[in-house]
Amino acid sequence: MAARDPGPGAAVAAVFVLSFFPAAPVLQAAYSDGLALLLVVVLLRAVAEDRWRVAWAVAPALALTRPVLLPVALLVLVVRWRAADGHVRTLLADRVLLARVVGIGALAFLWPVLAGVISGSATAYSTTLKAWRSDGLSVGGWFSGLWTNGLQVPVVLFVVILVALVALRLRRRTPDGPADHLGTWAGVYLLFVLATAPPNAGIVRHTLLTLVPLGTLGPMAAHLTPRRRAVLLAVVVALEVVLQWVWIRYVFVVADVSAARIP
Question: Nearest CA to 14 among 179, 198, 185?
């Protein structure tokens, strides 16, 4: 997607940076992140190229890999809204589009439904999530977590900045290309994660699927000379290596084995 727009050189740089992302080591572990990353990229490309047969084939597999189809449905809605020049009536009149959005969103519940059917418990999915989260299943994710811990000012400032960035992106008059889908996906998915995930170091792992390097670094590097692009790449990768070491040392690897034992 990034190779078509903005170009092969920028795409290579973006993929290189993604490979050194602080949470990239999870791609070598027995986690679902690697498969989810592949399926997200395939699904986003299928949506960008309007290849819905491929999208419908990939979406159920992604639904059983990571719970990310709700932001995908929102992405489809936002991209089509921009293509309609912000006309809500035009958007609502497109029944095919609405059916696709509803269908993608409905598939987000495939995993919880199967978990309930197989286990015989309607709350199997939510109970499993609750067992992994010290905060239970609180609504609001990072926003509510920081707010209830007395950090109201940072939350308000972050929300204001986030709304401003979203407004600036939506006001762009240039048509969306494949790379723009990546940039829009980064914002939509990051907002979804912040609204649903608990405030802890796991946010680094979750943001791996935002594909930020592909949606932001690629377009930035496209307008640079090869020499400046190489300098930018070296600086970013060096910073990522340091952050990756910190993440592995203090988050990914359990240093105190006794703390990981189940009593």
Answer: 179
